[in-house]
Amino acid sequence: MSTVLVFATDEDLFAELVTAGEKIGDEVVAAALGPAAEDPEVPGASKVYTAQGDGLDEYHVDPVATALSEIVDEVGADRVLVGGNRRGKEIGPQLAAKLDAGYIVTALEIPEEGTFRRKFMGGKTMANEVPQTDDVVATIAPHSFEPATGDPAPVETIQVSPGKGRVERVSLEQRDEEGVNIEEADVVVAFGRGVEEEDDMELVFDTAESMGGVVGCSRPISADLHWLGDDRWIGLSGKVVTPEVYVAAGVSGQIQHLAGCRDSELIVVVNTDENAPFFEHADYGLVGDLYDVLPAITEKLS
Amino acid sequence: MVKAAVLVKQVPNTEEVRIDDSTREPDTSRAERVISLYDKNAIEAAVQLKEDGEVEEIVAITLGDDQAEESLREVLAMGADEAFHINEPELLEGGKLRKCEALAGAVEEAGDVDLVFASEESADSHTASTGPMVAELIDAPLLSYVFDVELTDGSVEVEREIDEGIETLRAPTPAVITVVESINDPRLPSLTEILQAKNKPLTELSAEDLGVDTEPTVRIVENKAPEETRKKEIMEVDDPDEAAEWLVENLQSEGVI
Ligand SMILES: Cc1cc2nc3c(=O)[nH]c(=O)nc-3n(C[C@H](O)[C@H](O)[C@H](O)COP(=O)(O)OP(=O)(O)OC[C@H]3O[C@@H](n4cnc5c(N)ncnc54)[C@H](O)[C@@H]3O)c2cc1C
Ligand SMILES: Nc1ncnc2c1ncn2[C@@H]1O[C@H](COP(=O)(O)O)[C@@H](O)[C@H]1O
Fold first, then answer.
1. Structural contact between residues B78 and B44, judged by C-beta atoms closer than 8 angstroms
2. Which residues of B touch A97 (CB under 8 A)?
3. Partner A contacted by B170 (CB < 8 A)
4. This prediction's pTM
5. Which of A13, A194, B87, B153 is the most buried (most CB within 10 A)?
6. Could you state, in order of their start, the residue ranges of all structural domains in chain B?
7. What is the mean pLDDT of residues A123-127?
8. Strand A125-131 and strand B115-119: pairing?
């Protein structure tokens, strides 16, 4: 019998992990640590173990990974699924190293028991990976599995002694969520470094509005320049979108960006460089300057 | 003496990886080998600390095949003092864990390393797990997704972007830091630096030297590109209004706007 332990620092992910867990084990139990331990609701699992502790409150990676390894031992789990947000992606590998377990990162599908499917080669390909070890740790990409339904699992408190860890939080500046849900939008107008100044983003917002869509961006716009928040960053390490129309203006279309929009129904590309890789993936391509083309589209639609 | 180790991976330029039409499998043989995009930010972070007098010595470590030496020379040109090349074909496949054991072994081999730098994720396999695993294996605190580092005797303070916002963390050294691109702009080495790099020490290591097992922990059993069919109707824009009209008409006839 195989027991799967699921864990996330984002409570919304638990139900998705339970669905994934059911594919690879006979019993799914959950661990809710720190803030999530207050009043955990995990539908479909057979039990939720909660634990509290100093370093757990702030989700410091070392205490969390240590606590999880203690719970794994205690409940006799041989598979651990971790919600694949940023914290999950630092906790998963540490836990794998502690357990000497094969590690799978951001699985999107579990085609059959023991096989995990994920993006590879910058997102160009999909790989099927098979762990060769007795124990397995995998992070699961958010929103890849339908959330489990059913009654919330009964809660049991478990004692762990992970210690405080050596990392200390000096401060946390909570992000103001703009609340755009780019994953649900029918039209996404994305831009990249082809937009030269922060103020020029206006052009893109106008076009998006005229098309009834929302604005997205490439990684450098969010991660490097910080013009827009993470919730608009599309690609391998950002959001994955599948709108009816994806417009990419001033985005070169490198594979890591394409990995986030490749399944859109229609792709429109605006780029001054006729050799931009994005044109290979376009339904409609406009070789031209976004500073001319976007306002013309906006004008046409309003 | 404060010593930094930088983990750098050589990868095929993912833009130049071709997909075989019949098998849909990737062909990396004709792709140029480059330093993984954000690893240059990791090196730059170490080199800047050295220029500021906070770090005295930088060791670059790579696990890769024969060609990976070229990338190590590039890192030496950017400012590393010494390089370790783990050249062990058996470790190139087979999952992250044994690779990280080898990298952790090389960090220990370098001796008294205070800071280990890696990037958040590599361009080809993007497992984002090397920093966290190496930290666990050398029993050092992990600071990941870092865009600002400050080092003051025996402790390091970083800023990083995490799911909930911007977090400032402090930890004692030795510590492992994974960086993101906004931390700095990597330099281009000068011709002199490139020439000097040829004479810097570079040591090859095997799994055996490091006492690491090469048994795979994960196997890739299939790796294929999905099929894609796009219309690829491309128009050169002479008159933006005309172009907009063409596009809007097409989108309307597709029924999407
Ligand atoms: C591990 C890893 C993960 C990554 N994850 C992501 C990810 O999730 N998302 C992501 O986006 N990237 C990601 N990247 C980065 C990716 O490889 C590219 O570097 C990035 O997508 C490039 O952004 P860009 O297209 O905005 O900029 P550039 O590549 O600089 O392209 C700008 C484009 O704008 C065009 N242009 C310039 N001026 C104009 C104009 N006036 N009008 C029209 N076009 C113009 C140019 O011709 C060019 O094609 C990742 C990279 C790595 C290594
Ligand atoms: N084979 C390797 N040799 C040296 N450093 C590596 C290797 N693989 C990964 N790294 C480092 O770890 C980072 C993250 O890689 P990954 O965990 O594969 O996404 C890379 O950007 C490098 O800094």
1. yes
2. 97, 100, 132-133, 136-137
3. yes
4. 0.96
5. A13
6. 3-210
7. 96
8. unpaired
> How many residues are present in chain B?
257
Helix A86-99 / helix A61-75 crossing angle, nearest 10 deg: 50
Can you list the alpha helix ranges (DSSP code H) found in B53-143?
Answer: 68-78, 96-110, 130-137
CA dist A157 and B111 (Å) reads: 43
Nearest to B96 by CA among A75, A137, A67: A137
Q: What fold characterizes domain A182-301? A: Rossmann fold (3.40.50)
Task: Look at B217 and A220 and tell me if their CB atoms are within 8 Å.
Answer: no
A177 CB burial (10 A radius; 0-12, 13-18, 19+)? exposed
CB contact under 8 A, B181 and A133: no
The residue ranges of every structural domain in chain A are: 3-157, 182-301
May I ask the CATH architecture of the domain B3-210?
3-Layer(aba) Sandwich (3.40)
Fold agreement (A3-157, A182-301):
yes
Residues contacting residue A135 through CB under 8 Å, at least 6 positions apart? A72, A78, A79, A80, A99, A100, A101, A102
A90 class by beta-carbon count within 10 Å (0-12 exposed, 13-18 middle, 19+ buried): buried
- Lateral strand order in the sheet of A115-120: A109-112, A115-120, A125-131, B218-224
pLDDT of residue B184: 97
Cβ-based contacts of B18 with chain A (< 8 Å): none
Tell whether ligand 1 has an atom less than 6 A from the beta carbon of residue A193. Answer: yes
Is A52 touching ligand 1 by the criterion CB < 6 Å? no
The letter for the amino acid at B192 is: T
pLDDT, block means (10 residues), chain B with 257 residues: 97 96 95 98 98 97 98 98 96 96 98 98 97 98 98 94 95 98 97 98 97 96 94 97 98 92
Which positions in chain B touch A250 (Cβ < 8 Å)? none
Here the tokens at position B16 are 């130049």
Residues 6+ apart with CB under 8 A from A110: A20, A23, A24, A116, A117
Residues 121-140 of B with CB under 8 A from A: 121, 123-133, 135-137
Interface test with A, best of B24, B99, B163, B177 (most A CBs within 10 A): B163
Judging by DSSP bridges, how do beta strands B142-152 and B175-179 pair with one another? parallel
